[in-house]
Amino acid sequence: MKILIISDAWEPQLNGVVRTYQNLIAELEQNGHEVKILGPQDFALRTPMIHGAQTAFFSHKKIEETITQFQADRIHIAVEGPIGWTARSICLDKNIPFTSCFHSNWADFLVSHLSGPLKKSSSYVSNKTYDILRKFHEASSGIFVASQQLADHLKEKGFKGPFLPMTRGADKRFFYVGEQNLFDNLPHPIALSVGRVSKEKNIDAFLDAPWEGSKVVVGDGPDLERLKKKYPDVHFLGRIEGQALGDCFRSSDVFAFPSLFDTLGIVQIEALTCGLPIAAFNCVAANSVITSPILGSINDNFGNALDQALNAEGTRQDRAKIANDEYSWGKTAQQFLEARPDYG
Predict the structure, then answer these.
(1) Are residues 147 and 131 in the same domain?
(2) Could you tell me if residue 82 is inside a domain?
(3) How far is 168 from 334, CA to CA, in rounded Å?
(4) Does one domain contain both 11 and 158?
């Protein structure tokens, strides 16, 4: 099968959307499918990389040529950005079905960045953003979602679907239960946060919470320098990937996931695969993953969530087994291939 994926988020960006398609494409190609991805780097007029994100404008000609020449059996539009909207328009004009995916909660993202007098417009901004997102996705043959909880949330916001399951996974080469070979010089227990260091990730809530041990933050982003100055006792390690990131998980005691706006969070799966319990607020992403007390704690007080997760029942092996049974990139690829409404 020939599959065309069109996405505003692609390499060299590093985020959950990019990581999802890197792993999905690897699985699809391993199973004999031909996959082409069209991202910002394929266009002459693209924005500079700003805080790790990039897109392109005036992309109509390139997208239309690619659709015509590649002759894909499946078209998937990943992101509701300028590239995605242009691809959507072309597919509608040519009566070509496509799927989409709800990766990012842009409404809550934008509201989280409002400050001062603009905070009074939060409700208006949220409603209008959801209007735009509904319009984008209503044209697709199906909306991929990472969990039933996310589908339920979107239904509450007026999305009609159909909703198609597409879970996430962890790279078993890097994420597994094993030796704790880092942080020997730090006071234990270790609470670890991994991800983009930006305001919407709500990292302050984790760093403000009481903790009798050390806090470690892995990741890069626009909020990093502010957090370094505000929390001098926290260990900020910057961007880490692959085996070294797996070592960070394995060498920690609790995974802190304070985000309120993520739709799932691949890092949650990676943490569980390494045996870590998760501390989180009550939100869609946490409720999608922390489905048993063995897996961690959901609490509106993040300090309590950390303490409860640290003392969660079960072992690292128990958590890893649950995660490995539930999540894999192979399963993600299978779900992607099997969900074919309107494709015959």
Answers:
(1) yes
(2) yes
(3) 11
(4) yes
- β-bridge mates for residue 46, sequence order: 56
Return the residue matching tokens 């949220």: 126
User: Looking at residue 283, which CATH number applies to its domain?
Assistant: 3.40.50.2000
| DSSP SS3 for 2 | strand
279 and 245 inside one domain: yes
Give, as one character, the DSSP assignment of residue 144.
E
Per the structure, the count of domains in the chain is 2
User: Which tokens in the block code for residue 26?
Assistant: 């690897």
pLDDT at res. 336 = 97
Its domain, for residue 316, covers 190-326
Domain contains 181:
no
Amino acid 19: pLDDT = 95
Structure tokens at 344: 């015959």
- Burial degree of 137 (CB within 10 A; 0-12, 13-18, 19+): buried
Nearest Cα residue to 167 out of 338, 44, 335, 339 = 335
- Least confident stretch, 25-34, 90-99, 105-114, 269-278: 105-114
pTM listed for this prediction: 0.93
Complete DSSP assignment for 234-263: SEEEE---HHHHHHHHHT-SEEEE--SSBS
Reply yes or no on whether the pLDDT at 275 is more than 50. Answer: yes
Residue 343 lies in a domain: no
Together in a domain, 305 and 199: yes
Residue 264, judged by CB atoms within 10 A of its CB (0-12, 13-18, 19+), counts as buried
CB 145 within 8 A of CB 166: yes
- pLDDT at position 95 is 97
- Give residue 78's pLDDT: 98
Residue 14 has pLDDT above 90, yes or no: no
Establish if 44 belongs to a structural domain. yes
Per-residue model confidence as pLDDT tens digits over 69-97: 999 999 999 999 999 999 999 999 999 99
Q: How many residues does the chain have?
A: 344
